[in-house]
Amino acid sequence: MKRILLIIGGGIAAYKACELVRLIRKSGMAVRCVVTRAGEKFVTPMTLAALSEDKVYTDLFDLKDEAEMGHIQLSRQADLVVVAPATADLMARMAHGLADDLATTLLLATDKPVLAAPAMNVRMWLHAATQRNVAQLRADGVTVLEPDEGAMACGEFGPGRLPEPEAILAAIQRALADGADVLEGQPDFDMGEKRLTHKHIIVTAGPTHEPIDPVRVIANRSSGKQGFAIAGALAALGARVTLVAGPVSLPTPSGVDRIDVESAREMEAAVTAALPADAAVMVAAVADWRVDAAPEKLKKEAGPPALNWHKNPDILANLCASPQRPKLVVGFAAETETAIAHGQGKLLRKGCDMIVANDVSVDKMGGEVNRVHIITREGVDSWDRMEKSAVATRLAERIADALA
Ligand code: C5P
Prior knowledge:
By secondary structure, this protein is an alpha/beta fold.
């Protein structure tokens, strides 16, 4: 997964950095924010932390983080450093190689490409000093975007507006594509290779909702917690994770690429679109049945509706039978009785490599703990009752073993 270090300067356009962070995350990249002291006047580190799902660095953190993470390391863990908004002052300091705060120190210490998206008053942009600084930065290899033209917050009109977040994201993607060759042979400063680096894993999670009419659905009690925890644990081991999530209101685990779906058929389409993959972990509680959905809301005065039932596709079984079958396919079995025997049957019937069977009569669906049995063709491994996060970590390690 590509990583962006986003430096947010102090200008009214800093609020747009929030949308940029959201778009970067949505496009499947990780983003770590650094806010200048002036930037903090316009956007709070807490907002950025929530949107980036990562720690935010400011001058205040700077000293106490020195021991934990040096400036040099922070500046090099990213694939690309982005400055948005790049104010006149920040660009002037960059052009002169100053390093008098965290942001400029990182910019001087980085060995990665730098992209700057300027935003300032039109006079400031057109000023000879700024134009000189921009020319210097470009000569130094920094990609400086042209600001947009239009009405400005200060009431003037002309060039100086921060490019729209979508345009900055497109520039980021171009810069990463251009820089791919340059970055290739460079050492990876992101704590080195992890066990699942370069592996793509699809995880399904949550329930599905099968519509009855525009307002009613057939649902189940799956909370999505176990699947989300597994997606997060796999990402933590370095995998590129595509999480296909049914309707749940859980935060996306760090570093995970999430696709939200509603019905089983949408889930199957999203899984198919995400292929190829090295492994698939199907944790979702997919509805076995759907009904013909009424185009308009059913009226209760008409009495109990006669629902016309159809079998949903078995996403797991279809994936196992597909020519694009991942090397490792893991299924789940939530049972209320004889979990192991049912799990063993399911392993063979569906054609997967591993079934994680849990007895939902003991630990209710939606709870925080799980007691699981890992069933493979080689045998059964029954784990103690533990937190879902612990099940996730252990299962991710087991998957890494199987893919090694
Ligand atoms: O057949 P059953 O629903 O018990 O199987 C559970 C396993 O199969 C889970 O891994 C679940 O995600 C998967 N499944 C599926 N598509 C279905 C039904 C179940 O992928 N339609």
